[in-house]
Amino acid sequence: MTEAERGDNATLFPQPVGDRLRAAREQQGMSLAEIGARTRVPLRHLEAIEASNYGALPSPTYAVGFVRAYARAVGEDEVALARDVRVEALKAPRTTPQYQPYEIADPARVPSRGLVVVAAGLALAVAVLAVLWFASGLFRGGDDAPEAAPSVAVAVPAAQPTQAARRADQVSLVATDEVWLRVYDAADKTLYLGTMKPGDRYDVPADANDPKINVGRPDKLQVTLNGSALPPLGSGARPIKDVPVGAAALTARMGGEGAPAPVASPASPPAVVGARTSTAVPPAFATSAAGAAGAETGAGTSAPAN
Predict the structure, then answer these.
(1) CA–CA distance, 267 with 262 (Å, rounded to integer)
(2) How many CB atoms lie within 10 A of CB 58?
(3) Measured distance CA(236)–CA(228) in Å, rounded
(4) pLDDT of residue 98
(5) For residue 80, how far is the Cα from the chain centroid?
(6) Does 292 have pLDDT greater than 60?
(7) Is 176's pLDDT higher than 50?
(8) Domain limits of the chain?
């Protein structure tokens, strides 16, 4: 067959693009691996092009691009080959990939029994280590916890009486007018004897033994207990004698007659009476006063407090 006849046959019956590219490659003594290295086209795609299996390629567009690269590598007309492969790729049937459902029961697709045992052992070991670490942390926390301070029984002292409670009751005798007065104790020792002037006050000693008084005008003598006024010891119609003026006696007397009324503080402190301000003795007390005065002449008593 002459070259003219061969050209006519090529025109009437054109060769597939794959055959032409394979012929050009073999003519140059190149392998598909070398073409793949030059074009960076996967070897399976080059094999599909030479076999005219365009359905194995991703799409006709990819087929055109791969053919252009193949043609440049072997020195063929890439434009003509790209045009021809586009026609062939559109005519070639495309196979739809078949997907197999994943079957769990398939032994080839599930982990082996040994792998499952190893994984379970590792999980168990991790769980045991976690429990031990947590438990040791609790024990360490218990050891490091501060010890509770021992309870110490502290004896609470009994409540001490206040200064006011410890202080003895104070009985005071205050003259509201000129009045004769004698104060003495159970041994008939004279504590005070004399005539008090208005405003004079005599404080009965707190340690006096059962003090008593003789007074000519009891209505002119105001008796106070701890600063509170007590009812008068008499009406003043007659003198009174041997009347107890101790705190206990006055408290008992007050219990029968009602609570005392507080005494208003005077504008100026009262005068302090002396041991004896007058020697004049009322006739009713002449005998007892004479004996007491004779036994204690010149002795006197301590001045009353303000």
Answers:
(1) 15
(2) 9
(3) 21
(4) 59
(5) 89
(6) no
(7) yes
(8) 15-91, 167-295
More confident residue, 128 or 216: 128
Its sign, for the CA torsion 92, 96, 97, 100, is negative
pLDDT at res. 150: 55
**pTM for the whole structure:** 0.37
In this structure, the dihedral spanned by the alpha carbons of residues 271, 217, 275 and 289, taken in order and rounded to 10 degrees, is 170
- 6-19 exposure pattern, b = at least 16 Cβ within 10 A, e = fewer: eeeeeeeeeeebbe
Angle (nearest 5°) at CA 91 between 86 and 92: 100
Hey, what are 289's tokens?
A: 């006063």
CA distances from 197 to 194, 272, 273, 277 (A): 10, 10, 8, 9
Helix (H, G, I), strand (E, B) or coil at 160: coil
Q: How far, rounded to the nearest angstrom, does the alpha carbon of residue 118 sit from its chain's CA centroid?
A: 50
Tell me the mean pLDDT in the region 270-277: 48
Residue 297 confidence (pLDDT): 45
**Stronger pLDDT, 280 or 31, i.e. the higher one:** 31
- In the predicted structure, residue 120 carries a pLDDT above the cut 80: yes
CATH topology of domain 15-91: 434 Repressor (Amino-terminal Domain) (1.10.260)
Burial of 270 (0-12, 13-18, 19+ CB in 10 A): middle
User: 240-244 — which CB contacts under 8 Å span 24+ positions?
Assistant: 240/214, 240/215, 241/213, 241/214, 241/215, 241/284, 241/285, 241/288, 242/212, 242/214, 243/212, 243/213, 243/214, 243/215, 243/218, 244/210, 244/211, 244/212
End-to-end CA distance of the chain: 168
Q: Check the CA dihedral 235-236-238-244 and report its sign.
A: positive
Report which of residues 183 and 6 the model is more confident about. Answer: 183
Asked whether the beta carbons of 50 and 22 are under 8 A apart, the reply is yes
pLDDT tier at 250, thresholds 50, 70, 90: confident
